[in-house]
Description:
The protein is of the alpha+beta class.
Amino acid sequence: xxxxxxxxxxxxxxxxxxxxxxxxxxxxxxxxxxxxxxxxxxxxxxxxxxxxxxxxxxxxxxxxxxxxxxxxxxxxxxxxxxxxxxxxxxxxxxxxxxxxxxxxxxxxxxxxxxxxxxxxx
Length: 121
């Protein structure tokens, strides 16, 4: 297991280099074969701050930097924003399966897991 210093940086083995959690997150997300995206709350919505390689293959460069409302149909966006607010409020992960055509052009079940993360952790 990697060591973490007082600044909450991970010390890489055999190199002595340190990386912050924010620097490690994109590499960890891109290593997954599951589609993963991170969102940051704004005043009126949630901005998609990073999508991993698995989602980029499906939503090629249309999601990163946009809000959930700009990427998903209105009903799906409204539902997802409500669920994200709930996860942020209670601080616990939750999982759902929804049917949407956003990713594949026709309605297919998509499993979602929402997990709150805090900057620096």
